[in-house]
């Protein structure tokens, strides 16, 4: 049975159940997404102020069989927050007014934030309490906690601190039935029944709406250090990573690889970004460490540099001598996505493979791409996690439009390779609406069947984020 | 519709589908559990050698609607592995023959083990590869990986490395339909659909049978150190923990509290255990740290001791000067459960509360217990995780049998208090069959409804570990 549209009659009913200003026509910004692939059908957005209002909205939608698209900061890259379509226009549900940090328990290393809280503000609230909330990614100034959890966001500190799911102790959420799950526990250990928390995390709003979360904080490392090291190859980068972890254990908090193409794109499109070496290195690695007191990160990184040079893993490098220099190194890494957008990718891939497959994956991907056409590849990312952004660009002088017809083939060629190597076609961005086909093609059939059974059990009418992750039925 | 028994006709059919020696009558050891509360109905046990055989068995049970009780090392403390009953005798499914370590990828920090692998052997395989598999608990010599994951086991290193679920990257499992989920990924990041892995972990065999897992390994800390410190109170213990984490960050790998009663029980029942102080301290803490190279754990612990003494948190203490002395300190902590068994608990409680509630919980629990009767409490455990074993014993001269009639009341009183304080009535042991009533009483109703919906969706006949976690219908 198809869903009903969020039409005038429905909106009228809903308006009667809510305070006056909760419902309004959705401005354009709610109907766009960062890569410009989709635009949402014109509809209304609900802006609740409390979990009870969220529950009222979900119940009304469940009764009327109207679809709901939960909306966080709108930064998702796979279209999970934008539902195209006409006849069945869904209701958007933005959590932006539920943006409080409800509490910080520094002595417990716990913070409770509402779903609409912006990541940078959560980081700041932790910092004020002398603690670290380690989730960190390019969109942290606008991404909101609900969306970050719904998509199990990754970022640059996963190596040490884990993905978003690893940073969450408990949730408050509204289930598709409209029931409120009061699960905001501040416990490290709680083995009382099925792990509903991790089921909602990463479900991209298809099994319920996260309204608040209790989050893990960490002690601030006594001192941090940053180095930019030139490596001969991705294999040498992995050798360097192993050496760093042998020397410093979990203190290695970020380990990011960059290929020459990224540096070239920066030089071409963002000349204000200072590049620390005169010649763009074929491969370079940004290493960040946070050490306990008694150790000097600069000395530890100098020692790593010397040992890795000795071992033939590193040919050149710089250890940041100040916070300003560390920030300069990070600028190189963090502005690559902006340079990419200026160049214009034919196809972008957020993939992971087992760590030991990285050195084979990178050149083999290029070989297979060369059979499709003449492309440039900008390969960069969280190599310490086996997670690469492997983005394909036109050769100089050509535009993405010239290759539009090859996008599906490129995606297929690269994702097939990832799959052959035991990897994932979505390492950190999720499935959204962009990768529904990929999920069907590559996911284990038994898992896919289980996912569909769970979706039908918890959301029998299919109102929660219809068409995201699983095809709408 | 009730389940069918694993009767002769069923066993005949099943035998025809399997190699000759897979099925046999279950010896007594399969029908007992460590606390002696239940004994299983006489039945047969299946001992498959491969995931395909497991799938054959599950399919046969699904077709005939025969219950399956998955069996690991038999060390569970809540009766998840023992199904009492007569008419509907289930089939036991022991994974003990699937005990291989399928592979170790040291450079990836990954190990793949089958469900029947014993924890100590997995630890050993990691150690041989120069890596650490940090899951560690009293029963590690007999507990098997499948059971450890199915119950999301905890232990002494959760503070630093997390629970069993945090150590698992992927699973191979047979779902209640008999489908095999091939999910043995070696990836740190994989956002492709619902988190079936975490749903099976902690489901105690009620949603499927785990047959193998890919597990996270860690670099070995360059050096470890151990101290036994006398603290004035549980509040002082938490102050010491905060100080330790400020000084050493995540390097604090274990932080165990012991009350005077535990030491008294050791002196009374296990005189061969050497107690490092002449007078049993009211409260003491066992601290273990693993530091990166360049730091001396002994020096770091001496410094912590001095600072904590200065701050009035610690009144006495010993920093181990050798591995032998560290082992001696650990003996005190690890043999408390054995001493408990010799004394004979009226009621044992594996609870957690938010860290900041610990100092109130311990005395308030004693106050409420005193209203029930005259008891001794042995309170010890993983205080760094907010997880206490709060075990209630008869006063000297009385036996557990004298208080049998008060067991339910004691449990109710303590669990009500835990619940009031936002805690969990099963921190690390799970629900099994022992705590099904507690789950119904204390769990959030929305979560409980979601759990039942998931169970019905994935296991519509209810064959998987019937009556564990959720009441059989």
Automatic annotation (TrEMBL), chains A, B:
Keyword Phosphoprotein: no
Swiss-Prot/TrEMBL GO biological process terms: respiratory electron transport chain
Keyword terms: FAD, Flavoprotein
Annotated FAD-binding PCMH-type domain residues: 38-220
InterPro entries: FAD-bd_oxidored_4_C, FAD-bd_PCMH, FAD-bd_PCMH-like_sf, FAD-bd_PCMH_sub1, FAD-bd_PCMH_sub2, FAD-linked_Oxase-like_C, FAD-oxidored/transferase_4, Oxid_FAD_bind_N
Known cofactor(s): FAD
PROSITE patterns: FAD_PCMH (PS51387)
GO MF entries: catalytic activity; FAD binding
One Pfam family, short name: FAD_binding_4
Domain of life: Bacteria
Family as reported in the entry's similarity comment: Belongs to the FAD-binding oxidoreductase/transferase type 4 family.
Protein name: D-2-hydroxyacid dehydrogenase
Organism of this sequence: Roseivivax halodurans JCM 10272
Native organism taxonomy: Bacteria, Pseudomonadati, Pseudomonadota, Alphaproteobacteria, Rhodobacterales
């Amino acid at each position: 049975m198809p869903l009903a549209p969020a039409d005038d009659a429905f909106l009228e009913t809903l308006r009667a159940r809510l305070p006056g200003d909760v419902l309004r026509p959705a401005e354009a910004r709610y109907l766009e997404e960062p890569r410009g692939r989709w635009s949402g059908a014109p509809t209304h957005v609900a802006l609740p102020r409390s979990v009870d209002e969220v529950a009222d909205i979900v119940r009304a939608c469940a009764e009327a069989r109207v679809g709901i698209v939960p909306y966080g900061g709108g930064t998702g890259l796979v279209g999970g927050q934008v539902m195209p379509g006409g006849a069945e226009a869904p209701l958007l549900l933005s959590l932006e007014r539920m943006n409080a940090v409800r509490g910080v328990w520094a002595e417990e290393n716990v913070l409770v934030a509402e779903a609409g809280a912006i990541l940078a503000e959560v980081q700041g609230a932790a910092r004020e309490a002398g603690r670290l909330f380690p989730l960190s990614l390019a969109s942290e100034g606008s991404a909101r906690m609900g969306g970050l959890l719904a998509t199990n966001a990754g970022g640059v500190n996963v190596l040490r601190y884990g993905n978003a799911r690893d940073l969450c102790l408990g949730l408050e959420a509204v289930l598709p039935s409209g029931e409120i799950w009061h699960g905001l526990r501040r416990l490290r250990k709680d083995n009382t029944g099925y792990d509903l928390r991790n089921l909602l995390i990463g479900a991209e709003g298809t099994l319920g709406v996260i309204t608040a979360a209790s989050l893990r904080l960490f002690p601030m490392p006594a001192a941090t250090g940053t180095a930019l090291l030139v490596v001969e190859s991705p294999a040498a980068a992995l050798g360097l990573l192993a050496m760093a972890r042998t020397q410093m254990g979990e203190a290695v908090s970020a380990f990011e690889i960059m290929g020459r193409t990224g540096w070239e794109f920066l030089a071409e499109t963002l000349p204000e970004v200072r590049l620390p070496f005169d010649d763009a290195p074929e491969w370079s690695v940004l290493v960040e460490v946070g050490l306990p007191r008694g150790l000097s990160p600069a000395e530890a990184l100098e020692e790593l540099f010397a040992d890795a040079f000795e071992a033939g893993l590193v040919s050149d490098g710089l250890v940041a001598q100040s916070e300003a220099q560390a920030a300069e190194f990070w600028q190189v890494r963090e502005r690559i996505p902006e340079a990419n957008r200026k160049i214009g990718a034919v196809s972008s891939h957020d993939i992971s493979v087992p760590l030991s497959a990285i050195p084979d994956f990178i050149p083999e991907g290029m070989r297979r791409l060369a059979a499709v056409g003449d492309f440039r590849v900008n390969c960069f990312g969280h190599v310490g996690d086996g997670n690469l952004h492997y983005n394909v660009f036109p050769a100089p002088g050509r535009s993405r439009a010239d290759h539009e017809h090859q996008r599906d083939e490129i995606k297929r060629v690269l994702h097939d390779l990832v799959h052959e190597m035991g990897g994932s076609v979505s390492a950190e961005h999720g499935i959204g609406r962009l990768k529904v086909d990929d999920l069907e093609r590559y996911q284990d059939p038994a898992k896919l069947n289980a996912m569909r059974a769970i979706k039908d059990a918890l959301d029998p009418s299919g109102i929660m984020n219809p068409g995201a992750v699983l095809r709408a039925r």
